[in-house]
Specification:
Strand order of the largest sheet: 1-2-3
Helix content: 25-40%
Largest sheet: 3 strands, mixed
Number of strands: 3
Strand content: 15-25%
Radius of gyration: 13 Å
CATH class: Alpha Beta
Distance between the termini: 37 Å
Number of domains: 1
Shape: globular
CATH superfamily: Fe-S cluster assembly (FSCA)
Length: about 100
């Protein structure tokens, strides 16, 4: 599997994770800012819809577990970043349609 296929596999896995308060997956919501692979390690930069998100612990943990479940990576690091801040413009068209935006 080449680099781009691995990134796609990770994106597909991230599309199975939902913010419990919003019926759209975290990838389509635009919460995933970057996915980097180096050797057998994966780093993901993501944000949350707000700094006060009640799922601030569980969503990043779910992201890490989901990518680890692929079985390709020795280490998966999920970093929460606040810059740039998330807003509705980061959402995909799929997410906007699902939320009637």
């Amino acid at each position: 599997m080449d680099h781009s296929q691995k990134i796609e596999e990770i994106k597909d896995k991230l599309k199975t994770i939902f913010d419990p308060e919003i019926p759209v997956d975290i990838y389509e919501l635009g919460l995933i800012y970057d996915v980097r692979l180096k050797d057998k390690n994966c780093e993901i930069d993501m944000t949350l819809t707000s700094p006060n998100c009640p799922e601030a612990q569980s969503i990043p943990n779910n992201v890490r577990k989901a990518v680890e479940s692929l079985g390709h990576y020795d280490e998966v690091v999920v970093k929460i970043v606040w810059d740039p801040p998330w807003d509705k413009s980061k959402m995909s068209e799929v997410a906007k349609l699902a939320l009637n935006i």
